[in-house]
Amino acid sequence: MKREIRTTMLMPAYMQAFHCIGPECADHCCTMAWKITLDRDTFQTYRASQDSALQPVFMHALKRNRKAASDADYGQIVPQPGASDCPMMDGGLCKVHARLGAAALSDTCFTYPRTTTHFNGVLSQAATLSCPEAARLALSSADAMQWVEHDGVVRESACLPVYGQSVPAAQQLLQEVHHTCLRVLSAPELDLWQALALLAILCHELTPLQAQHYPVEKTAQVLEAFTTMLESGALNSSLAAVQPDLDAQAILLGHTLLNGRSLHRAGRHPRFADVLARFSSALGDTPAELGKRYPEAALRWRAQVADAGLEYVLRNYVLNLAFREVFPVQGKPEDKLAALVSALVAVRGLCIGLAEERGDVSLEDMQLAVQSFERVCQHDSTFIGKLAATFSRAGLQAMPRLWPLLRL
Questions:
Q1: Which sequence spans correspond to the domains of the chain?
Q2: Which residue, of 121, 304, 400, 402, is most buried by count of CB atoms within 10 Å of its CB?
């Protein structure tokens, strides 16, 4: 039996209201469009089950993963001929959950869409917005991304440690780095693009230190210098002078959304395919057409978003990513920044296309753009990394090139 703990966690406010809505979900997670992994304990429990309704399904739908890197990926559920949903589904509900209870679910099924991290003694939890209900709640209002402490149930086996082997002083310092980034992204006096532009400076300074396992003294110096720069407003005039490069944004968007990789993913995910089709009908299905139509559409969208009071939506999206991914310390900082910017560029572009196709901006379309894109990223863990690698190889994280790409 999995060990479950009821404890207090740090989380965005929307998580307090989140629960699975089951068969009412517009894009449910119990589908064979992605790999549903089974941890070792769950796999063996299912194989040994004597439940009369489940045993035949378990015998045919479970497959051992012989190349598993860990017990978390010990096996998987395999699709049945002609079926698109998980073979455990029955009338929109999970037979395992119905017959054996939530405790019998695998770590994958029990936790999704939640991600729980354990960092310097603090448990934090957020949801991936590939879940439609999570996306709806997280993007419903600016207050949805207020930080709260809330009780919840977690599995020990599904808690992700962050720098768990580091000395306490290093953990404390890296936690301060993470929280500083969240404060910058949340700052109402900064536009989202300005916040990311500033964080690019911090990530550039932190990246060499990550390779050295973040020596405490040097890392503290970098954080102090960054904080001093923020407080002094030394870059305010430079940021205010930046003008958007709409032509370069269109080129980057074309590389992001109109490449073979994105189109291939669309073939596997109907919701993303529909969003991409609407985007292409409004802004063009070739980079050349996109280059012609994007600049005016982007400026219209910017005005529409401001008039509708929806400027918070993409900020919430980026904030949720940064919180869930423990930005920027869970990996190479410049790579994490590239991933964050690539996601923003793609989703913002989809939002512009959907608004152009509809004739106006809508919260529902913005939520749809976020959720469908995140669904593709969730189902293919290499997708956003490859987009970010393209971004980095082009040198776009360098300040003179990054800032005009971010600003709209």
A1: 4-161, 164-408
A2: 402
